[in-house]
Here is the input.
Amino acid sequence: MELLAFGINYQTAPIDVREQVVFSDDSMEDALHDLVGHHAVKEAAIVSTCNRTEIYCSTDKPEEAKNWLASFHQLQVRELEPYLYSLPREHAVKHAFRVASGLDSMVLGEPQILGQLKNAVKSAELAGTLGLLLHKLFQRTFFVAKEVRTSTEIGANSVSMAAAATQLAERIFGDISAQRILLIGAGEMIELCAGSFSARHPKSITVANRTAEHAQALANRFNAESITLNELPEQLALHDIVVTCTASPLPILGKGMMERAIKKRKHRPIFMVDLAVPRDVEQEVLELDDVFLYTVDDLSDIVQEGLDSRQGAVVQAEAIINSNVINFMHWLESRELVPTIRALRSQAEHYRRHELDRALKLLARGGDSKKIMESLSNSLTNKLLHSPSDVLNHASSDERDELVDMINRLYQLDRLE
Here is the structure.
């Protein structure tokens, strides 16, 4: 079994591909059980966000594991293969460290991914698919992420997706103090958007969510109004800026609903940002002249601003990560030797027990203790050295020098001279 990380992210796949392989919270446990229970995978954890879907696992059949991702989502392997990356062993370790540290994010240094990784680990623990290898990997991953964030300025001057949405709105409207804002959802991203937009003092903010209590709780924090998703058809036309990010598997804002809203607004434009994956807004909405719709991928240029000023921090972070990759691989390689070491000790213990039992029987019969102990030590020494001596005696000329060097090293014979 070898460590493997594979998946797709915002760099390798567009949003219309990424949204096809998202794992919802409700499907996560079943997916983990299916992967570990019915495939050549011993351990597994799944990271599923708007920007990436990645599987970290221990497997001896990487192709079967990768094919599972497509089959679980009822896709053909050929549909997903062009976008898929596969990272074995130390490449998987380095990738995990870079992701947790914010170096592989669309928003360089963003902190949300660390929490998402921790949630993925918690889900794997609850599902019983997190074994020794992945536990150690993520334990080290979180340590590295903390070291990177405390030792470098990787998060300085970063522009979050929420801030990018606000900046884009300001570029379109100029001053948004006269605009009415509708936020759909009540998760972490919408909470960040609420904070970012409220700091610009818009005319009003309304929070819409499937659960009225969650919408009201978030609205209370930002002096906003709250509605349920059922009220969207009537309320949509009242707002100039709409930002949505829910966990719905299907779009909640369709072309027909938006056409009716635009008609009520007498064709005054609506600015929309869809931060959800899968998307909350039907793709056909882009066909409407009076709707300006942006997705997470469209915000990439804005979130890259300030990147040049953090290049020094990136170099520092990469150095920290590389050092920790080496340390982790030393641990992993030592773990791979455990079965051999265990077998060697088991064989030695078998010899010891056999010779000890023989000696005790002879002592019980009244034999000479000195002669019995001498015989025990000779027999034990001969048994322990028989196999390496026999291999050395029968070695070919090509391998003899290598074996001699190895035996000198194993038994430290040079120290006896």
